[in-house]
Design goal:
Elements (H helix, E strand, L loop, with lengths): L23 E8 L8 E4 L2 E4 L1 H16 L4 E7 L3 E8 L8 H13 L6
Antiparallel strand pairs: 1-5, 2-3, 4-5
Helix pairs in contact: 1-2
């Protein structure tokens, strides 16, 4: 089912008043458009990555090459989404990190950003 603002009421899970530009550990989730299973499949209880899933995994691991002071923690690629934990130390801006990750995998996958 596609998102319908008349039916679905999205709520922000962000903490009220929290400054998200601060240093800390951040839990990141990126979902595929329309929740399509584009990154692989679950087979016998194990995630089997396809080429797109392998690309997502590689892009996450290469993120550290763009932001050397950041630290990557655990991550998992699922059939239609990705979870990862990234640590931003004091004095390292968060701005741009999501753009590098999202922009790179869109180009690699042969898609384009949609406003």
């Amino acid at each position: 089912m596609k998102y319908n603002p008349g039916i679905h009421h999205r709520r922000s899970i962000r903490l009220q008043g929290y400054d998200y530009s601060r240093a800390g550990l951040y839990f990141v989730t990126i979902c595929t458009r329309d929740r399509l299973c584009l990154f692989g499949k679950i087979q016998n209880g194990k995630m089997i990555l396809n080429d797109a899933g392998t690309m997502i995994e590689r892009q996450w691991q290469e993120l550290i090459n763009h932001f050397e002071k950041n630290k990557l923690h655990e991550f998992i690629v699922m059939p239609n989404h990705f979870h990862g934990i990234i640590e931003f130390p004091v004095g390292v801006p968060l701005v741009g990190t999501q753009n590098v990750f999202a922009g790179t995998h869109n180009v690699s996958a042969g898609t384009r950003d949609v406003p």
